Amino acid sequence: MAGSGTAGNGPVRNESADDRRCETTGVPMTHAHTHGTTHTHTHARNDPAEGPSHTGGDGGRAPDPAVAVTTDGLPAWLDPVARAARSVRPQQLSRFLPPESGAGRQSAVLILFGEGERGPELLLMERSGTLRSHAGQPSFPGGALDPEDGDQATTGPLRAALREAEEETGLDPRGVQLFGVLPRLYIPVSSFVVTPVLGWWRAPSPVGVVDPAETARVFTVPVADLTDPANRATAVHPSGHAGPAFLVESALVWGFTAGVIDRIVHYAGWERPWDRARQVPLDWRA
Question: Whose CA is closest to 244, among 230, 259, 223, 229?
Answer without folding.
Answer: 259
